[in-house]
Amino acid sequence: MRRSVRNVRPRGRGPVSKTIGILGELLLTAGVLILLYVAYVLWGTGIQTERAQDEMRERIETAWELPAQESTEAPPDEASPDETTAEADSRLEVDEVFAIIRVPRLGSDWEWIVVDDVDLESLTRGPGHYSHSAMPGELGNLAIAGHRSGHGAPFHNLDRLQVGDTIEIERADGVWTYSVDQAPSVIDPSDVWVVDPVPGAAAEAEPSERRITLTTCHPRYGSSQRMFVSGVLTSGEEI
């Protein structure tokens, strides 16, 4: 006698299984989005910064030579109004450029254009000069900040600097060299004294040295603390 085979329908997924499945899909999607964001921060922003650096470099290659080409008493017909306007525009375009910084310890080709501010927008284009700090070669503390990750990570390997390493600053009017005398140190974000005219001294203290301080985030892929390196001027003169 043959037994009849009944059609057995597969049981549907229970509410717990469905919930787990949905959560798994959400976590997978979130993981992909996080990876894409990390890739953008580490590489995408670097492409934007590289473009900004290239644009600024093109501007200063000619604009920094303008003072030497100017004449205090040029005849009216020596330059047309259009040329005068173009020269003025060229000056305005390099207002955001502060200097060029080179640190041989970080590579023979390590060179960055420093912008003239440290707000978030400025630092997307490169290292930035604390506007209240000293100018190159001046008494006081020339302070420069830079990203350690993302936006080209100019100060990615700042922790490699050692006492005796050199930091070179170039502007249109001169070149100055500083020697590191304070190895990389970690501080809290509230320790803003490192960019004071006399680091660690009272606010009213008068500077007697010509110093430089580089600051960045710590750890390398985080911002819970800060890292700084400091040095003293060893040579430099205005052109």
Provide an overview of this structure:
The chain has helices at residues 15-63, 66-69, 81-93, 120-123; strands at residues 97-102, 111-115, 128-129, 140-145, 166-171, 174-187, 210-218, 225-238. By secondary structure, the chain is α+β, with helices and mostly antiparallel strands. Strands 2-1-5-6-8-7-4-3 form an eight-stranded mixed sheet, covered by helices on one side. It is globular.
N-C termini distance: 111 Å
Q: From N to C, what is the helix and strand string?
A: HHHEEHEEEEEE
Number of strands: 8
How many separate domains make up the residues? 1
SS field, number of helical segments: 4
In the predicted model, the low-confidence regions spanning at least 5 consecutive residues are 32-40, 66-92
Residue-averaged pLDDT: 81
Blueprint (SSEs and pairs):
Layout: H1 15-63, H2 66-69, H3 81-93, E1 97-102, E2 111-115, H4 120-123, E3 128-129, E4 140-145, E5 166-171, E6 174-187, E7 210-218, E8 225-238
Parallel strand pairs: 4-7
Antiparallel strand pairs: 1-2, 1-5, 3-4, 5-6, 6-8, 7-8
Short description:
The chain has 239 residues and is an alpha+beta fold. The chain is built from 4 helices and 8 strands; from the N terminus they run αααββαββββββ.
Defining key terms:
239 residues; Sortase, Chain: A; globular
